[in-house]
Write a structure and sequence with these properties.
The chain has 147 residues and is mostly helical. It is built from seven helices and three strands; from the N terminus they run βαβααβαααα. It is elongated, with a radius of gyration of 25 Å.
Length: 147
């Protein structure tokens, strides 16, 4: 029995969800690249996570995924969650500054590469914070108490 790739996902959780959906419809499914992507999460984007099924079930599995993607199996149940807040460029800039100021990212091999700039980043972030709030205070003083 040869396995055929029926779909490729960028996220292991999305692949697991699709695999569970197919398994609930009696499709024998296998999620590949699980080991590589859980050891180093950055590999998820590089490799992609593939769903493999036996060749005789490939057409049925592709059809089920297409129908699920079109919303055929959707229900109103569970859709009472509030919408996710949209993130602005300011949020992204704040997160990048926080990563630089604290020495990099956590959870993979990057902190060793960024460890040297931690002190400098903290100093620059502090000076930027003081400069921005100092400027706000000066502008507020000029507007509220003109000379």
């Amino acid at each position: 029995m040869s396995l055929v790739e029926i779909a490729r996902f960028q996220d292991v959780y999305e692949a697991d969800l699709a695999a569970a959906f197919l398994a609930s419809h009696a499709i024998e499914v296998s999620v590949t690249e699980r080991f590589q992507t859980t050891v180093d999460p950055l590999m998820q984007r590089a490799l992609g996570i593939r769903l493999m099924v036996p060749g005789v079930q490939a057409d049925q599995a592709r059809d089920l995924l297409a129908r699920a993607g079109s919303g055929e199996f959707a229900t109103d149940e569970g859709d009472d969650l509030p919408p996710r807040p949209t993130r602005t460029w300011a949020f992204g800039a704040l997160m990048a500054l926080a990563a630089f100021a604290t020495g990099g990212f956590w959870g993979n091999s990057l902190p060793r590469r960024f460890r040297g700039v931690s002190g400098t980043g903290m100093l620059l972030a502090g000076l930027l914070f003081i400069a921005v709030w100092g400027g706000v205070a000066i502008v507020a003083k000029l507007l509220l108490d003109p000379p």
